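JOB MANIFEST
job_type = single_chain_structure
chain_count = 1
residues = 395
[input]
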Amino acid sequence: MTSRWRLASILVSALMLVSSMSSSVAAGTDFAAAGGGWTQDGYGPGNTGYQPDAGPLAVDRLRLRWSVTPGTGVEGCTTTPGPPLVADGRVFFFDSGGVGAYDARTGHSLWRATGFSLLGPGLAVAGGLVLVTASSCFSQSDFESTITALDARTGRPRWTAREAGTVDFLVADQGVLVTHGYCGVCGDSQNEIVAFRTSDGTRLWSRTDALLAGPVSAAGRVILTVANRSLAVDVRTGATIWTSKIAWWARSATPAGDYFYASNANDLAAVDAGTGRVAWSIPNGAGEIAADGRRVFVAATGVTAYDARSGRRLWQRAVPDAGRPVRAAGLLWVTAGGRPMAILAPPTGRTIASGKRFNTAAGHVAVAAGHLFTTDGTTIRAYDDLDSDGLPRAA
């Protein structure tokens, strides 16, 4: 009986250990998944400014959890930290002439990859990789750029591609990174679009006769401008899907990827991503956009909300120097050029809470992994509504 009892005790202990390990893994997984990610500047490839998985944040109970002031890098090659990217519980931003990864919960440094000459205007996270662009900042005649893929967990380089031009902006979708830049040695053309496979950096297709009309992909389709006309192409092959006589600039897509929100001059239109047909247009309606599938929020002179189906104006609010709106955690967040941030109810535009604590926020915020992330161009700040034990703060 004693031997059986000991055996049973060992088995129970083992099961408890496995259960404890599983709980720890689950807790880590839950944290990584809770609040989702923010993997490109405008949330994802659709550049929607809409984070559907952020979960609610109790604005009045938000407290500063941590802050980091990244290093600026080598003199003459400094970078300014924009809104961070977030994936799997990690936060990524330009840091000390490279890219740094930090724990989203604590702000502790996880890794830093340095040695880049001049970092590009943005990052992207795709397929477990942090995609980084860099160009020479020491020679104006040397237009060579690099695109480097870093392992998101370790920061180790996985692949590097070199291009004879700058990289001005990018979008990653369906396993493909599409870049746009200026090429001074590409014949008569000054613009170059190059598409790479994100997993290994293989060059898939390129064009030197076109402009990538915005860092936006609608379900694997991007808009190019060729000779004052538009065409939509497949990100994987570069094959043309449709053409238009109007030169569109893609500002966002719907979360479903069925429409582009695009501008021509100062007009805003909903353009069918599969056919190029215009569903509706708004004269002088162009601006920075967040799109949640039901409404389109446009920051121009103030903030205006339109019905996503019809383009009908729903409400308008005065927000001086409005930055890009972000729709997340049940709210609309709009920076205001050093003034208190506007925190609004998406259906009505009503002010929900005071944004005085966030008056240093510039550009736009990012909401992911249970946090509100802001930047003032110098410091990254992370806020949450949890106490020191990771539990919701008492009201």
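[summary]
The chain has one domain: 30-384.
Confidence is low (pLDDT under 50) at residues 1-34.
exit_status = 0
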